[in-house]
Amino acid sequence: MGGFTILDLTGDITLFNSPEIRKALLSLLKEKHVAQLLVNMTGVKYVDSSGIASLVEGLKVSREHKTRFALYGLSKPARTVLELTHLLHVFEVYDNEEQAIAAPPPANKSASPGGDGAS
């Protein structure tokens, strides 16, 4: 199955730094072909729509490459943004690193429950 790669994000994810986040995600997924990408968001307090777009693009690319993509350590505001955008259940989301590593990968995440999650 391959090892885990953990991408540690810190600070707010906004229009100003989301291009860097996107670049890091796509590099790991497309160029380095990691088997499992866990995104550590314990240091992220706020995510705006451009940050969400970068995470969604990472998820989309991970599905194309059959790579596991999970988020963990979401702050209350970050979790709220994902809930409001109806994306919380589209992503694999865990409270901490231990849970993310211990959880078995989903059997088939190419089709998310209830449709594609996009509106």
List the topology elements.
Layout: E1 4-10, H1 18-31, E2 36-43, H2 49-64, E3 68-72, H3 76-84, E4 92-94, H4 97-102
Parallel strand pairs: 1-2, 2-3, 3-4
Helix pairs in contact: 1-2
Q: How would you briefly describe this protein structure?
A:
The chain has 119 residues and is of the alpha/beta class.
Based on the model shown, name its key terms.
Transcription Regulator spoIIAA; alpha/beta; disordered C terminus; about 40% helix; about 120 residues; four-stranded parallel β-sheet; 4 strands
Describe the protein.
By secondary structure, the protein is an alpha/beta fold. It has a single domain (4-102), classed as STAS domain (Transcription Regulator spoIIAA, 2-Layer Sandwich). The protein has 4 helices and 4 strands. The chain has helices at 18-31, 49-64, 76-84, 97-102, and strands at 4-10, 36-43, 68-72, 92-94. Strands 1-2-3-4 form a 4-stranded parallel sheet. Helix 3 (76-84) links the parallel strand 3 (68-72) and strand 4. Helix 1 (18-31) packs parallel to helix 2. The longest helix is centred in the middle third of the chain and has 16 residues, at 49-64. It is globular and about 30 Å long. The N and C termini lie far apart (33 Å). The model is unreliable at 109-119 (pLDDT under 50).
